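Re-run requested by the PI after the first attempt was lost when the workstation crashed. Everything re-entered from the original request form. Ligand of interest: AR6.
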Amino acid sequence: MTTIRLVQGDITRETADAIVNAANSSLLGGGGVDGAIHRRGGPAILDACRDLRASHYGKGLPTGQAVATTAGNLDARWVIHTVGPVWSASEDRSALLASCYRESLRVADELGARTVAFPAISTGVYRWPMDDAARIATETVRDTPTSVEEVRFVLFDDRAYEAFAQQT
Ligand code: AR6
């Protein structure tokens, strides 16, 4: 059984085996939670991302996939980078958002991570409506078989916290 917990706050302050990053395909950093993770985690994370680009993802990490690096100075063993879809009003990209959660849990299982902290993927720069993102995130975690014991959603503000609380 996987326990789902909600907390409000900054994911870079969390203690977990793995912290998930809402990255972009370049894996080379950005704003939002991605920027915060690289800032607090330090340059070891970017170095590892550059190595991954060179070895496996010359064209970038595809949307919906996930890959792990060191967590640098964060209070975690790994950062799992996943690329959420940009919200589209004309195209249903829900399967890609669900894939981010499922693939991150698959990577977490491969690593042997027991606690995994997720941000609300795609709900910032990528503009996914919060209520819908919360539904997809919680349903996907509930429906994914995993050895992860605790999934923690770390919600940055009241609005995100309330949206996730409605689903749990
Ligand atoms: N801790 C927890 N959640 C956070 C934090 C934090 N420190 N900072 C922001 N959030 P976003 P996306 C929330 O934009 O929409 C980047 O530039 C934020 O309030 O970080 O998937 C990447 O490089 C929002 O609810 O990610 C990509 O280019 C959620 O995290 C692009 O943004 C996600 O917002 C990815 O966009």
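Saved to the shared folder this time. Residues 94-111 form the longest helix (18 residues).
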